[in-house]
Structures are given as C-alpha cells and as structure tokens.
Amino acid sequence: MKKLFALLGVVVVLIAAGFGIHQVSSQSQKKESKTIIVGSQGSDFQIWQHIASSPEAKKAGLKIQVKEITDGVQLNKATADGSVDVNAFQSYSYFKAFNQENKKNQLVNLGTTYLEPLGIYSEKVQSLEELPDQATVAIANNPANTARGLLLLQEAGLIKLSDDFGPLSGVEEVAENPKHLVFKQIDDTTGPRVLKSVDAVLISNTVALDGGLNVLDDSLFHEKVDQSTKNNINILATAKSNEKNGNFKKLVKLYHNKTIQDYIEKEYNGTKIEVVKSLSYLEK
After folding, report:
1. 53, 82, 119, 228: which could join 219 in a potential S-S bond, CB 3.0 to 4.6 Å?
2. Distance CA 191, CA 178 (A)
3. What is the pTM of this model?
4. Where in the sequence of the chain do the CATH 3.40.190.10 domains occur?
5. Residue 106: Cβ within 10 Å count
6. 131-162, pLDDT tens digit by residue?
7. Alpha-carbon distance values, 106 to 40, 102, 235, 242 (Å)
8. Major place of localization (predicted)?
9. The domain defined by 119-223 carries CATH number 3.40.50.2000
C-alpha cells in the first residue's frame, strides 16, 4: 500500500510538473502572440498601417496596431519604456545618437528596412557646379542629420571634412570650403518651404515626399546605397529587454515580403530603397 501511495505521489508530481511546464509555455506563447504596438510617423506610419491590415501579416500570425508619435525622441522614449513595442521611423545614426544620450533607456536594432536618400535641392541653380561663391545652403539643425547632410555635401565634392568628423559632428568640422558656402541650420521639416529663400537645401526624403518632391528626379544630388551611407539606413528598434522576442523579429521579415515591397515601390515611386543587411554590417 505504501508503495502504491508513493507511486501515486510520483505520478501527481509529474502531472503537476507537466502542467506547470505547459502553463509556462502557454504563458510564453500568449506573451509573444499579443498585439504588437508599432510606433511610427509620416510615410512610415502609412506603410505600417498597410502592413498591419495586410494578408501577409495575418499569414505570419502577427497582430499589429500602429500608433503615430510625431516627435522622434518621444517615440524612442515610449519604445524604451514599453508604451510602444517596436518603432519604425529612424536611421541607424539617429538610433545611435539616442542611445548615446540615454544610457539608462537603451534600444536595440532588430533589423534593416530601407535607405531613404537625403537629397540636395535648389530652385536657383540647375547643377551643383552653378552654385555661386558664398551660396547659402540650408541643412538640418539636429546633430545626427547635420552630420548626415555634411557628409552628403562632401560626397558631392562641395566641402571636405576634418579627420575628427564623427556621427554627431557639426559645421565646425568643415576643414575645406572652397566655395565659402554659408550654412543655415533649419528644422528638418521646413526644407521645401525654404527652397525659394536659399541657394540650396538638404531635404530628407520623407519631408521631400510631403512637399511634392521626388529625390530621384528632383534633387541635384542624392545618397546612394553604399558603405558611406550605412549609418543612414533605417531600422526597426525595440527596448533592450525585448531583444530576443521572436515575433518582434518577424516584423523585419514581414517588411521585406515581396508583396509588401511591391506596394512600397509603387506607392513611393521607388524612393524608399529596400536594404536587407545583417546587424553586423551596420556595426562594423
């Protein structure tokens, strides 16, 4: 009889243990199957609304709710504190700048999405060669985009930057300026509105699209996908605590689904150039 009770006790323990494992597993699956809140802005917000309602998202087993937050810093902070699960709006350089300034609220990169080329635009000249001496060039006034703009001007052959130039450097690191360009720093979103008042202006593609401009057709010069622009590739980001979340990682694969990419290509006239790169490519 004692042996029978002991055997029953072992069976009960095994059943309970099995139930506990099943419960933990179910809780884990439930946690990963919950609705994913994707924070975004501008044209990226529109893209993710399309993705959220797409058959491709359903096939991937992903429930997505898209939330619009127009301030980039606030969107990153909302992601860091968990109010937003994943965000889709920022370049790798913007991401690094945020992490550098917010040591206690670190984000991680889930994967690459696209390069949205920064372009140099003008209504006063037809080519960069026509820019006069002391031409006024408007560039973004936030550190990450200021540096990005200066790198593009160097790539265009208009200036040369110092050896100390970094991802958050500003106009003080311009080492050579043969045309004596005058830099006017402006809010990123006002680019199209200042076209008439300056000789040239650097405009991000999101803002250019909102202003009726196509970077591939209307700019005098624009970024290409190569090693020099890797910091400008856009990414999906999440809080460091979510680094291993399987469903969050699936969002990267979903973005690169061919049907989704066909929609983006058509909707934005090819100006959001798909980039499929490993995390190590950006971190080199």
Report:
1. 119
2. 24
3. 0.77
4. 35-115+230-283, 119-223
5. 13
6. 999 999 999 998 878 999 999 999 999 999 99
7. 18, 6, 15, 11
8. membrane
9. no
Q: What residues does 64 pair with on adjacent strands?
A: 36
The dotted CATH code for 35-115+230-283 is 3.40.190.10
CB–CB of 38/68 below 8 Å?
no
Q: How many CA atoms lie within 13 A of 244 on its CB side?
A: 1
pLDDT tens track for 226-248: 888 998 999 999 999 999 999 99
Q: If DSSP states are collapsed to H, E and C, what string results for 214-270?
A: CHHHHCCEECCCCHHHHHHEEEEEEEHHHCCCHHHHHHHHHHCCHHHHHHHHHHCCC
Structure tokens at 22: 């099943």
What gap in Å lies between CA 148 and CA 142, rounded to an integer? 10
Report the alpha-carbon distance of residue 263 to residue 236 in Å, rounded: 19
